[in-house]
Amino acid sequence: MDKKLISGFEHIAYSRPELSLEQLEDNARAFYESMAQRRTVREFDTRPIPREVIDHIVLTAGTAPSGAHKQPWTFCVVENPEIKRQIRLAAEEEEKISYGSRMPDGWKEDLKPLGTDWRKPFLEEAPYLIVVFKQSYGMKEGEKTQHYYVSESVGIACGFLIAAIHQAGLATVTHTPSPMNFLSEILARPAHEKPFLLLPVGFAKAETFVPAITRKPLDEILIRY
Ligand code: IYR
């Protein structure tokens, strides 16, 4: 039997292929080793990428768990150069103010090793921008519907999205211009959607250099009980 009713709702049998413990170890290690190659990249090749690649990356993000399975996310994929330009100009306007006066010196000091500044050419160079919106509530037939754990759910979906971008062989940077309401205006999103994250997606430019920084070792991030 692969279907049954539980509390009146249809359920389907769940199964995964049965793997040996060695296979589990191999899988876990191989996925870690692949993810450990991921780096934040701020320089992109302008080479085009098939839409189907981005579609599958977004489909992967959409497999994330969410509060009460409300899937409170919208992924706007921008490839139109005019719209990318508008987004770049608006982001740089905010970033100029942020770097100039909004960010305290300590914050700017912390960012120095990453070499960031107000200029965001990657917003035009990358073939795609994925703008993630969180839906504070849903809209069904003109009525508001409740969403739960919205930021957590969308944050998890963004994790899946970033992993999928990397796994496909592409690169991204998690860009969060602040404030980012301009994204709602440029993309004409409805009031129940709030901008959450902006990700340029493309091939990393040939001869890209990234900061020589390392990740915390296991004994700093894992506590056993
Ligand atoms: N949003 C700015 C500043 C910035 C902030 C953090 I925290 C970073 O990790 C990186 C940058 C920018 O995108 O430049």
TrEMBL record:
Protein name listed in UniProt: Nitroreductase family protein
Membrane-crossing residue ranges in chain numbering: none
Nitroreductase domain sequence ranges: 36-202
Pfam families: Nitroreductase
InterPro entries xref list: Nitroreductase, Nitroreductase-like, Nitroreductase/BluB
Species this chain originates from: Algoriphagus oliviformis
Domain of life: Bacteria
Keyword annotations: Flavoprotein, FMN, Oxidoreductase
